[in-house]
Amino acid sequence: MSSVSPIQIPSRLPLLLTHEGVLLPGSTMRTSVDTVRNLQLVRSRLLKGTSLQSTILGVIPNTPDPASDTQDLPPLHRIGTAALAVQVVGSNWPKPHYTLLITGLCRFQIIQVLKEKPYPVAEVEQLDRLEEFPNTCKTREELGELSEQFYRYAVQLVEMLDMSVPAVAKLRRLLDSLPREALPDILTSIIRTSNKEKLQILDAVSLEERFKMTIPLLVRQIEGLKLLQKTRKPKQDDDKRVIAIRPIRRITHIPGTLEDEDEDEDNDDIVMLEKKIRTSSMPEQAHKVCVKEIKRLKKMPQSMPEYALTRNYLELMVELPWNKSTTDHLDIRAARILLDNDHYAMEKLKKRVLEYLAVRQLKNNLKGPILCFVGPPGVGKTSVGRSVAKTLGREFHRIALGGVCDQSDIRGHRRTYVGSMPGRIINGLKTVGVNNPVFLLDEVDKLGKSLQGDPAAALLEVLDPEQNHNFTDHYLNVAFDLSQVLFIATANTTATIPPALLDRMEIIQVPGYTQEEKVEIAHRHLIPKQLEQHGLTPQQIQIPQVTTLAIITRYTREAGVRSLDRRFGAVCRAVAVKVAEGQHKEARLGRSDVTEGEGCREHVLEDAKPESISDTADLALPPEMPILIDFHALKDILGPPLYEMEVSERLNQPGVAIGLAWTPLGGKIMFVEASRMDGEGQLTLTGQLGDIMKESAHLAISWLRSNAKKYHLTNAFGSFDLLDNTDIHLHFPAGAVTKDGPSAGVTIVTCLASLFSGRLVRSDVAMTGEITLRGLVLPVGGIKDKVLAAHRAGLKQVIIPQRNEKDLEEIPSNVRQDLNFVPASCLDEVLNAAFDGGFAAKARPGLIDSKL
Ligand code: ADP
């Protein structure tokens, strides 16, 4: 008997709970990990641990891990096997799981469980392979006899197998080289034994007992082989091979999990899969690949990681809608009605969408441009996309591209990777189950870039009508025809869309809404939708238009209607509570009361004013219906107003002016502030400005310095050299947001003119425009969004560059009526409009006197 080198396992072991298969010391098995505690164990011990010790686990057999970690641990099997994790293979698809390759080291017994979360850890006692080995049997002689007997049976069994198979020959050699004490465990895991028998062997801590229990198992296997050889004499060679292969599969793969039933089930699945491949309508090339893959699959052992990979692949291939499509039933008149019903305003967008659909109706196979809706969030870009699908009678699928920075997100991973999966396009097709859906590529402007390739480049192939009829996903590795898919893209700004991608798309701008449009959208669409979602009826809640307007102006400041929608959600929730409480109270009031009461209430409803929600709060009786949402109720529900008209407060000292800025989220008003102090002519700029904006500031100062005399602008010491012994600080609030662009030029000039003249800028004026050194005002972009922002903020006058006057046509007439536009071609005109009583260049008599 050769001596065993002692193995000392740690006294605390993390426990891996298994219920399929039993790992015995000296053997290796693969086990699948997909429950919460086991996953945690793999992640924190095996994937993060760096020492050899962290790869030692306690494998507890016959104990299923509960599906969630909030459930208590089931009673643990008393004896387990300390195991070394040799390999971890992970996959995220179809759900996160790992496959572990573990090798059993020795038995242990749980003394006490130390913790259960995030994974169980126990204090353990090592049971075998201790230095004093074996100390449980009576005498060495007796064990010697037992072990000799066992060895003989083992040799007999192995020699009945086909020695030409390398694994069998190796096994024969192992019988001689391995210590005898290790043989019962190893042979039990090789021969055909049930899980129950393996568990008994594991529980047999005493070596004598173990030998005694394993010998009958060996004898049984030998007898079985003899019988088999007798009955199939003619094909003896083949049989040997079959028998030989079987135990060998068990050596390398999960012993015990390959129960006959499972195998049969799997075989059935494969037959089904094969049948599906045969009957599927996939193109010839794809069909060929599938046939080849299924042939490989049939030869593969099931516990190989590649088996699951290939099977998933084939399942995807048969599920894909190669030839399945919905029929378009497009009626332009119906489409117009549907678009109008679903969306208020956005005329330009609806018009272009209808044109697009009309051309599609006339020419079926349209290789037209991809539509790209560009506008601030919450203006209905996605919902128009959904309506397009509805009008065409097509399936709709949204692919969110925000933050995608890996091209395999679009084009899939090659199948050589473990955990590889198809890209979002192919996945989307699988989800919708037809090959002509409407795909909404949401937020194409937020595609990222990384070392894993440029997803925008991958999108080019998807969107190009010349190429996309044979789009090849890396995972599929065969071409899929995307030409029937209708792609619509959305973005907040075109600035960050890669130019090549932009080139393939037709941009349709969707500007923000005016307050009046928002009120209409709220009453036609948002409120009814929210009522339905909260189970309320118009008989229970009444939101007058003034309340809506108050929510728009005081609780939201956005170009779209998304947070407005959320506010209505909050209102509806609060009312739902009141209504539900009311029903409860009504029920408590008793039957007779209620019937009487109902008669009376009908009268009340007719002429009494409905009560506000705040008034009803403390009433013992149920609230009067409908519950009216007035301004008080609004304050109760939404809290104090978030936005007040702060404009006049901020403009009460010189050196402040209101500019208009364009952002991807819509237009915004921006307060530009300036102050001066003693110094050496330095200009400090704060507020995260880009280069162009810094240049505008320098331009503004230079222009003012050169015109200081003309406008009688002086520094604190009365000098026309404005920077003489003076520092200037310009600040653009919301310092965390990066700002750039030339359009703040006029605002900076006005703000500095106010600072140096000591006069206040009019508090109801906002402005935008680029400046030149000579004092001209140049046109800028985003006029509509900017004007809407000024209107939202309650301003009255907007100074715009004269050459932008044509853009005013886009602005809804009610906004145009509310605002006074001052087109300016030079800074003179800007300053005149920005200050009460003008800012004319005038020679002050006193000054001239002194000069004379
Ligand atoms: P986006 O994609 O532009 O960010 P969404 O399409 O998600 O915005 O729109 C947000 C919500 O606002 C949706 O519930 C949508 O129905 C509603 N909505 C936006 N604009 C309109 C409109 N013009 N008419 C009706 N509902 C609208």
Automatic annotation (TrEMBL):
Function: ATP-dependent serine protease that mediates the selective degradation of misfolded and unassembled polypeptides in the peroxisomal matrix. Necessary for type 2 peroxisome targeting signal (PTS2)-containing protein processing and facilitates peroxisome matrix protein import. May indirectly regulate peroxisomal fatty acid beta-oxidation through degradation of the self-processed forms of TYSND1.
Compartments where located: Peroxisome matrix
Example of a GO biological process term: protein import into peroxisome matrix
UniProt source species: Nannospalax galili
Protein name according to UniProt: Lon protease homolog 2, peroxisomal
Motif (Microbody targeting signal): 850-852
Family classification: Belongs to the peptidase S16 family.
EC annotation from Swiss-Prot or TrEMBL: 3.4.21.-
Sample GO molecular function, one term: serine-type endopeptidase activity
Listed SMART domains: AAA (SM00382), LON (SM00464)
Domain of life: Eukaryota
Family annotation (PANTHER family): ATP DEPENDENT LON PROTEASE FAMILY MEMBER (PTHR10046)
Annotated residues for binding of ATP: 375-382
InterPro entries for the chain: AAA+_ATPase, ATPase_AAA_core, Lon_bac/euk-typ, Lon_lid, Lon_proteolytic, Lon_Prtase, Lon_prtase_N, Lon_prtase_N_sf
Active site: 743, 786
Record bears the keyword Protease: yes
Keywords: Acetylation, ATP-binding, Hydrolase, Nucleotide-binding, Peroxisome, Protease, Serine protease
Enzyme class: hydrolase
Lon proteolytic domain sequence ranges: 651-837
GO cellular component: nucleus; peroxisomal matrix
Domain Lon N-terminal residues, every copy: 13-222
Complexes and interactors: Interacts with PEX5. Interacts with TYSND1. May interact with enzymes involved in beta-oxidation of fatty acids, including ACOX1/AOX.
